[in-house]
Design a protein that fits this description.
Length: about 500
């Protein structure tokens, strides 16, 4: 957290009408500690200052301290406690106190919302977002989309419906526009559109859909029967290929003016892959990696290098695989694993992806060896752990390891809500088409998941080059899609279509 404290305790003011307090022993001690805290704030000395603050807060006279001084104390306490993950609960309690006072900074409010999400306090997320929407809506822009998306996903997985509508309604009221470069709130507007469409307000849903430019979200909406009137009124807007072309043009223009954005570079690469322009995607990924390698260590080529480097390697690997250059693709993904993730040496995302690529390449032993690197799973989310089990299931089936296959499938069955796509892949790898059909139909019945499942069931044109493993997986999925019971389930909630794009980009499956 950036330090933004002002030294407000030097002229510590006690409440009017209580001058005698300073003469008492407690008052003298309070003043002495106040001066020491003031020095700690000036020096940004958390080691000395935080214990003093904890003692200072316990004084019975503290509520009479001036509001500005109390805000400085709570802000300093939050700032210090937030630096130690072991003190997350203390930091959250501190920031709640800071934001209860007038004048709390945007940074304090952003931290409160972010930590409420991290600590799984959806009630406080909703309360804070509603407060900000009413009083200082632009402060909400400082909160990353990822915070809200994670909260909404957890609420959905838990089957709770209380807080997500409140959060989404408040974000819409605030006209939320994420300030972080490259972030878009399209997924949030789609979630809100689903809610208002379910409530029967088609005009409101249509207005929300007009805020969306992301192809995946537009495709999901276009297949969902809830939005059929809006799609019929403006079919060009929901044309997946046209939307991807629009996104590519916009991101290429953005990259021209922000060449140090690796996030935007990644978006352009993904859009080129979506349009099946694999050579161009590969060229851009390699150019970015070459630029990174040539830059001095103290002057990195990209502003967001630490956050995105592993994903550029991943982009390169996928483009190579889509060109049929499997061995080169595997090496590119190994390079991605070595790049680390989010500042940590162990890279969970690319390790799981590498295992999936080994399965695709017909190398199940290597897939299992790769997954063994994640046995501790200390960094993996429940979503990621489900992909580990899915890739194990695919490898075990290829190797005829029935007991291990059964264990992986049992895990996926017990954790379906963590990652339905992972369970579906495990079932298809195992040849359990009845189970796969049941998973598909359950997702189609779910109001929040149906759009993603309809997208997964579409017939994408690419990639043209598929490994034998991937081709078999696609045939199994097509067999599930053609079942009469699945066709009937699709018709009840929407439709599927032939999509002239690379399905790898739009389905979290291959």
């Amino acid at each position: 957290m950036r330090r933004h404290l002002m030294v407000l305790l030097a002229g510590l003011a006690l409440a009017q009408g209580a001058p005698a307090m300073a003469a008492e022993d407690g008052g003298k001690a309070l003043m002495r500690d106040a001066k020491a805290i003031d020095v700690a704030i000036a020096k940004n000395d958390c080691a000395a200052g935080l214990p003093l603050v904890r003692r200072f807060l316990a004084y019975p006279q503290f509520p009479q301290v001036s509001q500005a001084a109390r805000l400085a104390v709570w802000t300093f306490a939050t700032d210090c406690a937030s630096q130690d993950p072991q003190l997350d609960e203390e930091a959250f309690a501190d920031v709640q106190q800071a934001t209860a006072l007038p004048g709390a900074s945007d940074e304090m409010w952003e931290y409160r919302v972010r930590m409420a999400g991290h600590l799984r306090r959806p009630d406080d997320v909703a309360e804070a977002v509603e407060t900000l929407a009413d009083s200082r809506p632009r402060t909400l822009d400082q909160v990353s989309v990822r915070v809200f998306s994670q909260v909404l996903r957890r609420e959905r997985e838990a089957g709770r419906t209380t807080f997500a509508p409140r959060i989404l309604a408040a974000l819409e009221k605030a006209d939320y526009k994420p300030a972080k470069f490259g972030e878009q709130a399209d997924g949030l507007w789609l979630a809100q559109a689903r809610l208002v469409a379910d409530a029967g307000d088609q005009a409101h849903a249509a207005a929300l859909l007009r805020r969306i430019g992301n192809t995946g979200d537009l495709l999901s909406a276009s297949l969902d029967i809830r939005f059929a009137p809006t799609v019929r009124a403006d079919p060009q807007r929901f044309d997946a290929r046209a939307a991807t072309e629009r996104m590519l043009a916009a991101d290429q223009a953005l990259l021209a003016t922000h060449p140090a954005s690796l996030t935007t570079t990644h978006e352009v690469i993904e859009e080129l892959r979506a349009l099946e322009r694999y050579e161009e995607a590969l060229t851009l990924a390699q150019a970015a990696l070459d630029r990174i390698a040539a830059a001095p260590k103290d002057k990195p080529a990209y502003d967001d290098l630490a956050d995105e480097l592993n994903w550029i390697h991943d982009d390169k690997a996928r483009a190579l695989l889509e060109l049929g250059r499997v061995d080169e693709g595997l090496q590119a993904e190994r390079d991605g694993v070595a790049a680390g993730e989010d500042g940590a040496a162990k890279n969970v995302s690319q390790t799981i992806n590498l295992a999936g690529m080994y399965n695709s390449a017909g190398r199940p032993q290597d897939a299992l060896a790769t997954l063994k690197e994640l046995e501790s799973l200390s960094q993996a989310t429940p979503y990621g752990i489900a992909w580990v089990q899915a890739e194990r299931a695919c490898a075990d089936r290829s190797l005829g390891r029935q007991a291990e296959l059964g264990a992986a499938l049992d895990y996926l069955a017990a954790h379906t809500t963590d990652n339905p796509s992972a369970r579906l892949k495990g079932q298809l790898c195992a040849g359990d088409l009845d189970g796969a059909a049941a998973t598909v139909m359950a997702q189609l019945r779910d109001d929040d998941s149906r759009g993603d499942m309809l997208t997964t069931l579409c017939d994408f044109s690419g990639p043209a080059r598929r490994t034998p493993f991937d081709a078999q997986l696609l045939r199994a999925l097509a067999a599930v899609r053609q079942r009469p019971d699945v066709q009937a389930a699709i018709a009840r909630v929407g439709r599927t279509e032939a999509v002239p794009l690379n399905g790898n980009v739009f389905t979290d499956f291959y």
